Amino acid sequence: MKRSKGRILIVEDERSMREVLKMLLEGEDYDVITASDGLDGKEYIEKDIFDLVISDIKMPGLDGFGLLKVIKEISPDTLVIMVTAFGTNESAIEAMKLGAYDYINKPFNIDEIRIIVNKAIEKKRLSEQIKVLREKLETEYALENIIGQSPGMQELFRLLPKIAQSNSNVLILGESGSGKELVANAVHNLSPRKGKNFVAVNCAAFPEGLLESEIFGFMKGAFTGAMQNKQGLFELADNGSIFLDEIGEMPLNLQVKLLRVLENGTFRRLGGTTDIKVDVRIISATNKDLKEEVKAGKFREDLYYRLNVFPVKIPPLRERKEDIPLLIDHFLRKLSCSQKKISPDAMKLLLDYEWKGNVRELENTIERIALLTEENEITVRDLPAEVTGYISKIEGVPVFEDKGVNLDLIIEDIEKKYILKALEKANGVKTEAAKLLNLSFRSFRHRLKKYGIT
């Protein structure tokens, strides 16, 4: 069975014309709905979303211009072709001003209407792809951007092309900042779906109700503020892939609806009554232990096994220290700072640092020091305080370079850490924390203000 090329609504009060257009477009593999007048068409627009509407202008009740205004208000992404037997230049200009895609006079040539409709649908699909590409314009997503020579990363490189060729769901496991979205993009770009839409959504970034409307879409009036129909991200990802980051944060009631998509590929928009069929590969990711979440009743067991067909584990940066020099070199080249080099002592500090924020923290750190350092050699004194705070742990002796170190930054960093530790031990009571540090309350309060500690 062929997949529909798009959904089209024909609004025409002349029955024979409706039937001719319906037969023609169904023959072109479109899903076609017909309405006998403008008011009937308005009801369809309020209940569903169409890629294209073909509407007569002269109709009883609500004419084509009135319907066009309704469409642009409720479903602005829907393209509209106006048709009339009483065409004038004035009516054509009016239609285009109101936002019509094209204007056709009756009688029209069958080949002409076929070409115009195909071009309109092609334009809409291209617009949808551009919308997705615009969101990732400044980000490169390809396998070569996943950097690493450690055994864990080499195993990842070996598995990804094999996993990508299947159509099965993938669950990416890794700490925050480890590069889960890069891996998800690699799976998509190495798969037969390459060239189709890749849509990413962070499940932790939306409140519960908003997340549902974002991924499944909504109809006008579904909730306060829903002023027009809106397609969800699953529709946008049709024939492509959707990346559900932080899937462990998805509410239980929404997990049930996601399970339905996994089982039969259908869902309903918020406030909608029509089932929508999509062909989407689901790639999800989490930094949580979903098995423990299942035991705690916070994640559905059936959904977990549906998502976890191909688990992919990304090792944290602290477990692949040998990749740090490669990553630094990659980030410097990305910043057009390849002439800058890391001194041996600075590299030792960067290798010994914990990198709790993983690759993302390393990239941000390199970007900051590369742009602020005027010399071509990045030394210890160019590193941020949180990294140089590890100096005292290196063989118990501070590291010195020919250019020296930034002693003030080191002292400030140590002082700040002791203040925070004292506050923690004193359960936030400032007077007690001051006593633990043998400081007067006035002096302690001055330091709090200096370091912006509230």
Structure description:
This protein has four domains: 7-134, Rossmann fold, CATH 3.40.50; 153-314, Rossmann fold (3-Layer(aba) Sandwich), CATH 3.40.50; 316-405, Orthogonal Bundle (Helicase, Ruva Protein, domain 3), CATH 1.10.8.60; 408-454, Homeodomain-like (Arc Repressor Mutant, subunit A, Orthogonal Bundle), CATH 1.10.10. Helices cover 46% and strands 13% of the residues. It has helices spanning 15-26, 38-47, 64-74, 89-97, 110-135, 151-165, 180-189, 208-216, 233-236, 252-264, 290-295, 301-307, 324-334, 344-352, 358-372, 385-388, 407-425, 430-436, 441-451; strands spanning 7-11, 31-35, 52-56, 79-84, 102-105, 170-173, 198-202, 217-218, 230-231, 241-245, 266-267, 276-277, 281-286, 310-313, 341-342, 377-378. The protein has a five-stranded parallel β-sheet with strand order 2-1-3-4-5, sandwiched between helices. The chain has a five-stranded parallel β-sheet with strand order 7-10-13-6-14. A two-stranded antiparallel sheet has the order 8-9. Helix 6 (151-165) packs across helix 7, helix 13 packs across helix 15 and helix 17 (407-425) crosses helix 18.
Condensed summary:
The protein is α/β, with parallel strands linked by helices. It has 19 helices and 16 strands.
Structure keywords:
5-stranded parallel β-sheet, 19 helices, 454 residues, Helicase, Ruva Protein, domain 3, 4 domains, 16 strands, 13% strand, Rossmann fold, alpha/beta
CATH class of the largest domain: Alpha Beta
CATH architectural arrangement of the largest domain:
3-Layer(aba) Sandwich
Q: CATH superfamily of the largest domain, please? A: P-loop containing nucleotide triphosphate hydrolases
How many domains? The number is: 4
Number of helices: 19
Helix content: 40-55%
Oligomer: single chain
